[in-house]
Amino acid sequence: MDTLITGGAGYIGSHLADRLLADGHSVVVLDDLSTGRFENVAHHRGNPRFAWVQGDVRDAALVARLVEQCDVVFHLAAVVGVGHVVRDPLRCIQVNVGGTEAVLAAAFARRRRVLFASSSEVYGKSDRVPFREEDDRILGPTRVPRWAYAVSKALDEHLCFAYADRGLEVSIVRYFNSYGPRMDDRGYGSVVARFISQALKGEPLTVYGDGHQTRCFTYVSDTVEGTVRAATRTEALGQAFNIGSDREVTVRDLAEMIRTLTGSSSPVVQVPFEQVFGAYYEETSRRRPAIDKARRLLGFEPAVSLEDGLKQTIRWFEERTISPQSTQRTQRE
Ligand code: UDP
Fold first, then answer.
1. For atom 16 of ligand 1, which residue has the closest CA?
2. Kind and range of the H or E element at 296?
3. 324 pLDDT more than 80
4. Distance from residue 155's CA to the centre of ligand 1 (Å)
5. How far is CA 36 from the centre of its chain?
6. Are 195 and 267 in contact (CB under 8 A)?
7. Ligand 1 pocket, 250 CB below 6 A?
8. Rounded to two decimals, what is the model's pTM?
C-alpha cells in the first residue's frame, strides 16, 4: 500500500509508520510538529519508501495533493491531551474538526480509504462500564473545556459516518489510554509519561484527585495492531471499534507500579483537580472498553501486559535521560 499518516511524527503515528514500513508499505508522514517530533521518524530518512512533509492538516490543497498519491489515509493528526485541550479549546476544535473535514473531503473526492483515530474520550463520563461502541455518550456542560475534545472527536466521527453514507470507505478506532516509548512528558502528556519522568527524576508522583479513577492502559504495539487491522479489513468498513486493553487499573495503583518498576523512592502526592485544570473541570472516573466487537471483526487481542509495557517504556525514558544531547541534536537537523 501507499499510505499517508497525518500526525505521523507523533507518538502513535510514528510507531504506525515503523510498522507500515516494516511490512513493506510506503509511508508519507504529514505533521506540523506542534506536538510531534521529527526525531520520532528521523531514523527513516534515506528510505525510498518514506517521505516527510511538514504542514498543517487543515491545508486543504496540501492534503488533497498528498491524498492523491496514496491508497489509504491514516488520519491521526489532532490536538490531544486533556491539558492541551483545557489550555486552548479553540485550537482543539479548529484543528480536530477542520483537519478531519479536509482529510475526508479529499479522500471522498479521490475514492481513497480512511482510518480515523478517535478517542475513548467520546464516551465522556458515562458510568456504564465497560463502554460499548453503540452506547450512549454522557458529556458535561459546555462551560467545561475538557468536553470540547470529546465533542470534536464525536463530530469527526459523525463526519466519517456522513461521508460513509455517500460511499467513502472509512473505519474508526477509539483509542484507550495508549502508552509507550516516544510519549510526550512535557507536562500535558499521558499520566504514564508524567509518572515515569517524575519517578526517574526523584520528583513526587502527582496523583490528581484521590487516585481512585481508573483507566485501561494500552501498549502502543497493541494500539498500532488494532489500527492496521481496522484500516485494512473489509469487515471494518463503516464501523467504529474500541481499541485498548481491558485491564482496569486505578491511577494510584499505576503510580505504585511505576515507583516499583523504576526503583524510585519518589513519594506519591495527591493534587486537587482544580489546582491543575482550574475551576471548570470534570473527570472521567472509570474508563474500560468492551473489546468483543474488535475481537470478533478484527481478531484484535491486546498482547502486551501492563508490566512488560511499562518496563519497555521506562527503558526508553532512561535511555533518553542518559543522552538528552543526542536527542536534541536530531530534532534540530
Ligand atoms: N493524572 C494524574 N496525574 C498526572 C496526570 C494525569 O493523576 O500527573 C490522571 C488524570 O487525572 C486521569 C488519568 O491520570 O485520571 C489519565 O490521565 P491522562 O491525561 O493520561 O489521560 P485521560 O484518560 O485523562 O485522557
1. 191
2. helix 292-298
3. no
4. 23
5. 11
6. no
7. no
8. 0.95
* pLDDT of res. 57: 98
**Contact criterion met (CB below 8 Å) for 309 and 217:** yes
Contact 90, 151 (CB under 8 A): no
**Cell triple for 79:** 490536538
CA of 183 to the centre of ligand 1 (A): 14
- What integer pLDDT is reported at residue 201 of this predicted model? 95
Pocket probe for ligand 1: among 92, 205, 251, 252, the residue whose CB has the most ligand atoms within 8 Å is 251
* pLDDT above 80 for 323: no
How many separate helices (H) and strands (E) can be counted in the chain?
12, 13
In this prediction, residue 325 carries a pLDDT of 45
Query: Per-residue pLDDT averaged across 151-168, rounded?
Result: 98
Our answer on whether the CB atom of 254 is closer than 6 Å to any ligand 1 atom is no
Please state, as a whole number, how many other Cβ atoms lie within 10 Å of the Cβ of residue 91. 14
| Integer angstrom CA distances of residue 328 from 13, 109, 199, 251, 321 | 20, 40, 22, 31, 11
Asked if 125 and 139 count as a contact pair (C-beta separation under 8 A), the reply is: yes
Q: Cα 73 from chain centroid?
A: 16
Residue 140: all three cell numbers together: 458535561
Cell 508499505 belongs to which residue? 25
Ligand 1 near 171 CB (within 6 A)? no
Q: What is the pLDDT of residue 330?
A: 38
Active site amino acids: 149
pLDDT of residue 188: 63
Contact 213 CB / ligand 1 (< 6 Å): yes
What distance in angstroms lies between residue 52's CA and the mean position of ligand 1's atoms? 32
Cell of 260: 516499583
Which is the closest atom of ligand 1 to the Cα of 192? 20
For residues 217-221, average pLDDT: 98
DSSP state of 38: G
Give the residue extent of every domain in the chain: 2-178+219-246+288-303
Q: What is the mean pLDDT of residues 11-32?
A: 98
* Cβ atoms of 180 and 221 closer than 8 Å: yes
Q: Which class in CATH covers the domain with range 2-178+219-246+288-303?
A: alpha beta
Instruction: Report which protein residue has its CA nearest ligand 1's atom 5.
Output: 191
